[in-house]
């Protein structure tokens, strides 16, 4: 008794149609899949799947699927060198993860003719660090010397000389002393050296 074949995914059926080597539109692939497998895939679903399969950024098989715009639609075909891939290898090459994934590096070893369709994987050059322009330190401003306030000119010492008073009695002495004290009081605020002399005569 024959084992029943496992159903293929839409991606497998579409890749199988491309491996025919024909240039096909989405509608033509949909019709081919229906005829070969009896499975109906909507045209818009075929178009959506083809946009992913033909994008090398999304799957490695995209390096080997050519996409050309003709009129209002696109035509897809597998490059000549990729037609040597088995349907299983081609499908596994479209996988991003999984144990069954067929890596691009292995495919290039097995089919060297595919190398010309892949871009050389050149390591991205690291952007050179922007040169840091050393900022010149601001010139140190010498602190201005505090202007020393000129000492206010000292009040000139005034030496007031009072002419000697000749006194003959005690009352006159008291009056003279009172006048001298009053004179000193009038000159308040001045730094004075006052010399008072009394001469008593018989």
Automatic annotation (TrEMBL):
It comes from the Bacteria. Residues 114-162 are annotated as: Disordered. Residues 119-132, 140-154 have a biased composition (Low complexity). This is Uncharacterized protein. It comes from Desulfonema magnum.
